[in-house]
């Protein structure tokens, strides 16, 4: 049974949202005082197992150089305790139903090694400054399916409802642009897998240092994303382009695909919601990517409250370039020897499918890290109200921004007893957050050229 502490006003906010009132100057003054600059509780918890936030990681380890995989800043930390099926009952109040289900599904192999909590999340000063500005003027529009009067920072650092929390996740700071080589794999029941190599580029106008909320509202672009499959040979060249809008009621997401067999770029209006993800063996939906993406308009969103939870955090060992993919990818689940869990406070947001709307997930429960607005765990339920899938984002701080983001996302299908791991980068060149990307690189014609290379 999960114990939830209801946040102030949450009980009265369990309804579909229209335009929301902005917080007062007095409320916004708490940011950087009793709250962190992006809205987390600055203080630790009562028993000290969650320490105060003291700025997060503000400088990388001495051994770090730009372009490297990020070395562990806490190499001397020891495991506090390990949860297995045998002692699960002692710790289940700190777990989600989905995490508990993993112990029950893989009783002989799944475990969680719990380390000291390190509140490492940090962001640039510009994101903190804009967050304070956003707090007093950001608004949800179109029933909560759009955003205006915000840029760069967290739009709703003192959230009043579930939609505001999920928009904080959708807009969390990840730099202005990046390119990355990463991959994914969906092991079969015996652990065998095919590595799917991906080249990706992301342009984030919302985070541009010259971002203007009025211009963002006019252009209505939150980000532009391009993805090309590089391996295996049978899939190489397949490409995807997405223009994500800030108001998807005003202008829905625009998407295009390039198919190597047809050598044509086609509009792809179905790249959304519960359409199958790219080369995912049916193990995730399109809107599972990044733990949740796209328009929230198919669900009613409830801010349940906050709780203390064990979530993957500071998973630098899992990110290490010393590991081969065979070291990580095992039958049933990734290798637990390389996963670090910590106790953190999370926002709990429940999404229930609207009447008369279709989606393979009838209910989703998101657990969002208060220090970063990253969805860290998600439990998904099917149309029989049965737990269907559980996802976990393995996060760390990227020193060069800085920003907290996942290095690997793992989606477990409890029915097939399979999973897909997305973001495998151990044997790839590290992300380039300093790249300059032109807007015209995210056009349909550019996608055609990309696919033919």
UniProtKB/TrEMBL annotation:
Pfam family, one: DUF1329
Keyword tags: Signal
Coiled-coil parts of chain: none
CDD domains tied to this protein: LolA_like
Extent of the signal sequence: 1-21
Gene3D superfamilies reported for this sequence: Lipoprotein localisation LolA/LolB/LppX (2.50.20.10)
Name of protein: DUF1329 domain-containing protein
Native species: Corallincola luteus
Taxonomic placement: Bacteria, Pseudomonadati, Pseudomonadota, Gammaproteobacteria, Alteromonadales
């Amino acid at each position: 049974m999960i114990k939830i502490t209801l946040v102030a006003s949450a009980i009265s906010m369990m309804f579909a949202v229209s335009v929301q009132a902005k917080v007062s100057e007095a409320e916004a003054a708490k940011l950087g005082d009793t709250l962190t600059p992006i809205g987390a509780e600055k203080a630790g918890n009562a028993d000290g197992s969650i320490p105060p936030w003291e700025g997060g990681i503000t400088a990388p380890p001495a051994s770090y150089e730009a372009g490297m995989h990020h070395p562990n800043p806490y190499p001397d930390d020891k495991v506090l305790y390990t949860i297995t099926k045998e002692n699960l009952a002692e710790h289940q109040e700190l777990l989600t139903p989905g995490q508990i289900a993993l112990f029950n599904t893989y009783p002989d192999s799944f475990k969680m090694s719990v380390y000291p909590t390190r509140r490492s999340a940090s962001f640039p000063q510009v994101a903190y400054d804009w967050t304070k500005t956003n707090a007093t003027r950001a608004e949800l529009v179109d029933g909560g399916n759009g955003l205006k009067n915000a840029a760069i920072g967290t739009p709703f650092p003192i959230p009043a409802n579930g939609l505001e929390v999920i928009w904080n996740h959708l807009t969390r700071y990840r730099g202005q642009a990046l390119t990355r080589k990463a991959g994914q794999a969906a092991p079969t029941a015996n652990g065998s897998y095919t590595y799917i190599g991906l080249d990706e580029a992301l342009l984030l106008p919302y985070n541009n240092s010259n971002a203007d909320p009025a211009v963002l509202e006019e252009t209505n672009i939150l980000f532009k994303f391009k993805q090309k499959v590089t391996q295996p040979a049978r899939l190489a060249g397949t490409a995807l382009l997405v223009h994500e809008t800030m108001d998807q009621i005003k202008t829905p997401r625009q998407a295009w695909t390039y198919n190597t067999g047809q050598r044509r770029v086609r509009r792809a209006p179905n790249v959304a919601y519960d359409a199958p993800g790219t080369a995912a063996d049916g193990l995730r939906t399109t809107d599972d990517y990044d733990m949740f993406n796209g328009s929230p308009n198919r669900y009613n969103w409830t801010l349940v409250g906050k709780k203390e939870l064990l979530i993957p955090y500071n998973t630098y060992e899992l990110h290490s370039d010393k590991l081969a993919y065979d070291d990580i990818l095992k039958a049933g689940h990734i290798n637990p020897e390389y996963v670090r869990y910590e106790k953190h406070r999370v926002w709990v947001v429940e999404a229930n499918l609207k009447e008369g709307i279709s989606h393979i997930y009838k209910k989703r429960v998101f657990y969002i890290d208060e220090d970063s607005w990253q969805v860290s765990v998600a439990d998904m339920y099917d149309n029989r109200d049965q737990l269907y899938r559980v996802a976990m984002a393995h996060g760390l701080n990227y020193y060069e921004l800085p920003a907290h983001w996942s290095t690997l996302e793992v989606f477990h299908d409890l029915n097939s007893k399979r999973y897909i791991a997305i973001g495998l980068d151990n044997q790839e060149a590290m992300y380039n957050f300093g790249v300059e990307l032109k807007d015209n690189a995210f056009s349909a014609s550019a996608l055609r050229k990309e696919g033919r290379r």
